Amino acid sequence: MTQDRDFEIFLATAPGQEDALCGEIRLKGFRQPRAVPGGVVIKGGWPEVYRANLWVRGANRILARIDTFRVVHLAQLDHRARLVPWASVLRPDIPFRVEASCTGSRIYHAGAAAERIENAIRKTLGAPCSPDAALIVRVRIDHDLCTISIDSSGELLHRRGHKQAVNRAPMRETMASLFLLQCGYDGTEPVFDPMCGSGTFVIEAAEIAARLNPGRSRHFAFELLANFDEPAWQKLRDVRSMRVPTAHYYGSDRDAGAITMSRANAERAGVTDYTTFQQTAISDIRPPCETPGLVILNPPYGTRIGDRKALLPLYRALGRTLASHFAGWRVGIITTEPGLAHATGLPFLPPTAPIPHGGLRVTLFQTAPLA
């Protein structure tokens, strides 16, 4: 792999959100994104890897695919792995680790495959292997096709770098941003989360409106690579949006601690001027502004916090309040239980496909503007 040759870049997301992520990537100006199971593939070089990590909100991690070849046994993998131009991407002084998976292949032992790749890197480059290394080489052998990738992100991308306080059942920022997109949010309308927890939906909405880069407050694994272009990266990071949102973003919660968390997180994210959080019970919520927009929330689930039957009154109260006072607002509710969503009595559109989240499967239920 050379600096000027395009290669495949894989942006991973939760199964079921591939199309939403593809839409975001297209809006961000990347060339010919293609949704595939588990993510989106684009073509580009290392500048596109940098931009994707800095700009894209919905991806969990971004992999640079540096080589692909067919293998049918471990000796062949060992030989072929030594031909990979490791020195063009890895540094001999930076520890690495290898994570491998095998599906439908004659090489079926992931641990043995990872060991062969580790040995190839150590013997051809001399770099140390460490189980705690921040730099990960990912190996996927799928029906005898071996794809070797560098995990350019390091920590998962929902860790934006400016959110320290979280509640008991937080939604990842990456997933929240795609739910906002699926609800038709484009940064020009108010957003209200009446069960805001640590403020994820509200802060993501405000950042989108202000065109703040989601990766602006963190470091990435690609900064450890041999081909890292620090001047180019710094130039990219230094570009700041001057956009001032035309709408405002609101959160409420019955828990005073949640409001304190949300305000602190909004301050660290730099969106305090565009957000308002206040302590309010769900039966007392009212439209926070005159212009209708989007109500979006991630209420408690029966299988996650509390008992499902005990939550039915909460969902019913939510539905009554929204139906009575939020005419013109669209609603998006994320929950594991269709029965809980329908307990609101709201006129939902056909739901999206369930999406894995924290060991459960959640579904987005959304409405058209309420009458």
TrEMBL record:
CDD domains: THUMP_AdoMetMT. Residues 160-342 form the Ribosomal RNA large subunit methyltransferase K/L-like methyltransferase domain. Keywords: Methyltransferase, Transferase. Residues 8-63 form the RlmL ferredoxin-like domain. One of its GO terms (molecular function) is rRNA (guanine-N2-)-methyltransferase activity. Pfam families: RlmL_1st, UPF0020. InterPro entries: RlmKL-like_Mtase, RlmKL-like_Mtase_CS, RlmL_1st, SAM-dependent_MTases_sf. PANTHER family: RIBOSOMAL RNA LARGE SUBUNIT METHYLTRANSFERASE K/L, RIBOSOMAL RNA LARGE SUBUNIT METHYLTRANSFERASE K_L. This is Class I SAM-dependent RNA methyltransferase. It comes from Gluconacetobacter tumulicola.
